[in-house]
Design brief:
- The protein is of the alpha/beta class and about 350 residues long.
- The protein contains 13 helices and eight strands.
- The strands form two sheets. It has a five-stranded parallel beta sheet with strand order 2-3-4-1-5, sandwiched between helices.
- Residues about 1-15, about 75-80 and about 345-349 have low confidence and may be disordered.
- The chain binds adenosine-5'-diphosphate (ADP) and magnesium ion.
């Protein structure tokens, strides 16, 4: 439990709502490590509660791979011997589209694994290296039975190299690694960084993983159909008034500017303890940098299942068409799908 509140702002005395832009938390290495557990909504995820779609056999295969990955060696020699044995890589990599249950299965693996284990997004692990230094991060994580990395992203060749080194070192120490992404490891970074040493890095990383592609439809498709809910000004006021608990109210442009001044690894604490976030006058973004920061922020809202109330442009339309056509397309589509769920999720809890 962090002892200090994530915000430096006292609640305004006049009854006005707190603002996101007044929340500029710092986060220590110890707090990052303490937070390396599955998000709240996956607290009960198990392999048994994953219902494979019979139309997509790769889903059944994925559950078996997850069960087999956690099981001791003897049990793995039976009926479900995996194709890669006996020299199975120490890592399992689940690749697939949105909503096929990758995070669910990763959390299930985490819950089922005895011993010390960690669960975090790629950005949380790089933030740990940032806060503790490389040697410090190795020291904190080494000896763990399992390291889960959700949404492996290789946007930055420097981060990739560090993560690749870190994983190799932990694996040598006996740690097993499981990761998810929307792109298989040998295609990560493709079209973005062409440097030969970067590609070699990715190959070295890929060799550590047994890659499994999960096909299927978005399990949440019912809640992600259509558009993010956009209210008018009065509707937004009413919705804010109806929130029981803490709701921040900000102009969208102010939040976009604020996100540039807070390191993305701290967004997790910006949203901590919030029951809703209200954004006024949402508009389409024109800067890719702003858009990528918003994606990281949306991921944290989604992990914490913080409902979003908004006016202006529907939030799934904030990413300009030229951005959607570029190298980060999948990220933007994921964020849009999450925003649709978060703006519509108020009654669903
Ligand atoms: N086959 C499934 N059976 C049960 N729940 C599922 C299944 N697939 C997804 N879910 C649920 O749907 C939601 C989205 O799944 P998630 O694991 O976040 O997908 P992904 O990480 O692949 O985008 C989660 O609440 C998850 O528990
Ligand atoms: Mg996921």
């Amino acid at each position: 439990m962090p002892s200090d509140r994530p915000t430096s702002a006292a609640r305004p005395a006049d009854g006005a709502h707190p603002r996101l832009v007044d929340r500029a938390p710092t986060i220590s290495a110890a707090e990052i490590v303490a937070h390396l557990t599955p998000p709240r909504q996956f607290a009960d995820a198990t392999a048994d509660s994953y219902r494979p779609d019979p139309d997509y056999p790769s889903q059944q295969e994925a559950v078996e791979a997850v069960r087999g990955f956690g099981a001791p060696q003897e049990r793995r020699r039976g009926l479900f011997r995996r194709r890669a044995e006996p020299d199975a890589p120490p890592g399992l990599y689940l690749d697939g589209g949105f909503g096929v249950g990758k995070t669910h299965l990763l959390a299930a693996l985490w819950h089922a694994t005895p011993g010390r284990r960690y669960f975090g997004t790629f950005i949380e692990y790089t933030a740990l290296v940032g806060a503790a230094g490389y040697a410090g991060a190795v020291q904190q994580l080494s000896g763990a039975a399992l390291l889960c990395i959700d949404e492996f992203e290789l946007d930055d060749p420097g981060d990739t190299r560090i993560m690749s080194r870190l994983l190799a070192e932990l694996v040598r120490g006996g740690t097993r690694v499981a990761a998810t992404s929307n792109t298989p490891p040998n295609a990560l970074g493709e079209g973005r960084f062409a440097a030969a040493d970067f590609l070699r890095e990715i190959d070295a990383l890929a060799a550590q993983f047994d890659t499994l592609r999960i096909d299927g439809l978005d399990y949440r498709r019912r809640s992600t159909e259509g558009h993010a809910v956009a209210l008018d000004a009065r509707g937004l006021d009413r919705a804010v008034a109806a929130v029981s608990g803490t709701v921040t109210v900000d102009r969208f442009d102010d939040v976009v500017a604020h996100l540039a001044s807070v390191h993305p690894s701290r967004y997790v604490r910006m949203v901590e303890g919030l029951d809703a976030v209200a954004l006024e006058d949402v508009r389409m973004l024109t800067s890719q940098t702003d858009a990528l920061r918003l994606v990281a922020f949306v991921d944290r809202l989604y992990d914490a299942q913080v409902p979003v109330l908004a006016s202006g442009t529907p939030l799934d339309e904030v990413f300009a068409p030229d951005m959607l056509a570029g190298g980060y397309r999948k990220k933007y589509l994921r964020a849009a799908s999450r925003l649709i769920a978060l703006t519509g999720a108020r009654s669903a809890g």
